[in-house]
Fold this protein.
Amino acid sequence: MTDPYAPPEDVLSPEPPEPPGRSIGQVVFGTVLVAAGLAWLITATDLFDLPWRAVFAVALIAVGAATVASARRERHSGLIVVGAILTVLLTLMSTAEGLLDLPFAGGIGERNFTPQTVATLTSEYRLGIGELVLDLTDVELPPGETAVEASVTIGALIVIVPSDLAIRVTGSVTAGEVTVFDTTFSGTGINETVSTPDYNEAPVRLLLDASAGLGEVEVRR
């Protein structure tokens, strides 16, 4: 029996529509953001150095693939913007390496190295962007000549050496400033070598190559 007081069927509230699913663009954009956040976290906590060019390149490939896959089904202006940003970053990295004559390696941020023994001293220290501090005051070098190279592509490099160590420093920057002890050189295309007076005769010697692309180099006791 029909209820005379029931509202007509045509005025009943329709069923609420199901919420739309996540688009390919949203998934890829979120994945890129998560990957970038993880990369920054790893770099900030010094777990290991990340090859940033590879990270950006992989992200750019993912964004491009998602843009192609979703071209017929949805708008993807956000993906295009992200792809453009990644392309600019990769271009800047490549340009920096070419113009500054230094590899964009070693990560981004601040790095402090304080080797305590020869076993923990490496022959090469690099940073892409930021400040690198290398403190060699606690290392007892072996007899003969020990070569160490330190570089920053963009930023500041500070090397601290023992006060009684015989040392020969080659300091270079593409554009910026080099300070070795009490001597400062500034400008572009700087490549200067400074040695302590007893370097050639000293039984223990440090041969230091300190360089920056765009920024400053300081070697101090």
